Write the structure tokens for this entry.
Amino acid sequence: MQLSDFDFALPEDLIAQRPLYPRAAAKLLQVSADGALTDRTFADLKACLKAGDLLVFNNSQVFASRLIGQRQRGETLFEGKIEVTLVAETEDPLVWVCYARPGKKLAVGDGLSFGPSLSTEVTAKDGADIKLRFDAKGADLLDTIDALGHMPLPPYIRRPKGGDETDKADYKTFCGREKGSLAAPTASLHFDENAIDALVAEVGVELAEVRLDVGLGTFAPIRTDDISQHQMHSETCALDAPNAAKIARAKADGRRVVAVGTTVLRALESLGGQEGAMSTDIFLKPGDDFHIVDALITNFHLPQSTLFMLVCAFSGTETMKAAYDHAVAQRYRFFSYGDGCFMPVGTAATVKAMLPESVKSTGAEIILGNTYHLMIRPTAERIHNLGGLHKFMNWSGPILTDSGGYQVMSLADLRKMTEHGVTFRSHIDGSKHELTPEGSMEIQRLLGSTITMALDECTPYPIDKLGADTSMQMSMRWAKRSRDAWVDREGYGIYGIAQGSTFADLREESIKALEPLDFHGIAVGGLAVGEGQDLMFETLDHCEPHLPKDKPRYLMGVGKPLDLIGAVKRGIDQFDCVLPTRSGRTGQAFTWRGPINMRNARHQDDHRPIDEDCSCPACRSYSRAYIRHLHRADEMLGAMLLSWHNIQHYQDLMARMRSAIEAGAFADFEAGVLAGYARGDIDPL
């Protein structure tokens, strides 16, 4: 693809110089999946949204990183002004890479004074690029800079030298929690607390946050005709456990993840929707797939920009060119202070990347089926008539099916719960369904599930103790109804599920309530929903003394390798999680030195395997360089190989834990894994 493919005529007067007030008055162009265009305003955004949509905002706050000061050499203070713009933080938080104008006269050792509370010293220089060591006189550095500086507006927004104080309010988003961005995540500028409260109350949307510290590279032009040769500037992003859990629930439920801004989209696709932090240089262009984000709210971007290429990748090049032509003709306002666009994903990835035979080759003996999705499509009755789930998917080993409760309980305004059960509407076609303990048992019987799960309510986190107690008590009544309705037959079993959120006494009461029902195994549910690893482990510590010693103990929906080690240490035997394959589809590999991002440029010339201590086909036969190439090119084989590797790693992890337990050396095994994580990935070539 050539740079000229993404050019269009944009009259200069359409580049917005000031935001509109009220912000909801800004225009909003709704792009439908079929390419139809509807002119709205942000006041009418609710018409684009659905109940259960998860709106994700970037919580990084822009700060006033453009400083104007005086040069000082020794005791001499020069009269001329020097303008300094922060570009990138170094490993030392007091040292920043900056751009100086004019920078010709600056020399290493020179000082710059920006007032009595802030001074700097030039520690390195390369043309106009310099490194400055700041002295904030004991105050927080970014707060001090923010107080003295001017907003780093993009060059297309014209301001007098010295800036404009109104931009300090206009250019900051309502959702910024911590300073770190050198440019605002501007899609969020259309929102305020009142608008968000209205969307939650009137539409039933949910909210989540991710962080991506926006760099000035956002505005860097592409300087090569072949866009595949363009290298994005690296930016840091992070997703914490509670927000990762919200995203995981939305994806599991089939609800839309709506990114508010391209920075959110880039962060979520880089992280794969998983908890963690990383540096990303992801460059999304037509032909790329999207695995996490289902809809995007963004401003209108400039011709030949990486952000225009991103929206073309997301909703289709021809669709977005037509949308932008319409926006120009209707005089929509472009860029940071301009109008917005709502668009659905047009290239969602559907491959799960693994054959049953491939899963079995890793040593896996049991797999999980999702009752909710199977009952909606293709239906339990159809699967039963075709010979059951084992035959339907060509799997000869045991199959565990969840009860469907987790997904149904997460449907928010699409469901209604009573003591009898749950009525809900399908997220696919709106059809009405009912799920009761008895109905869930019948559905799982029709599927032919080897291990059936009792119907329960999975409580969210956080929840108050009264809410957790009320929910747990009903789950225990449903557990008895599930056990009574389950049809006993040789070779099949049913597990009960303990609830109670993170409250120790409720967990104990729940486990004891399940004892007389004689389930074949006990699951610990309601964890890994945002409480974080420390609180999850603390809850398991409270559960362990009360769990049966002679039955399997199953921790549902967990987790990362270190989660599994910590849970086994606390007496857990069995797990399920989408993480190995979801990570494989988004470019993350798990290794004995910790997780690594295979999309990073450091792997592009690396002939070594992902992990020398792995026997999977990806590690036996392919290099890091090749797997990186496959993921950067969005080739299906990349997702297949990396998913295969991750499942193999998880199976190897469980096998090594079993061996360590048998040898009485589990503590040594855990210490060895933690030491490997501390070493980090192998050194780049």
About this structure: The domain at 366-557 is CATH 3.20.20.105 (TIM Barrel). The chain has four domains: 3-56+172-344, 66-149, 366-557, 578-685.
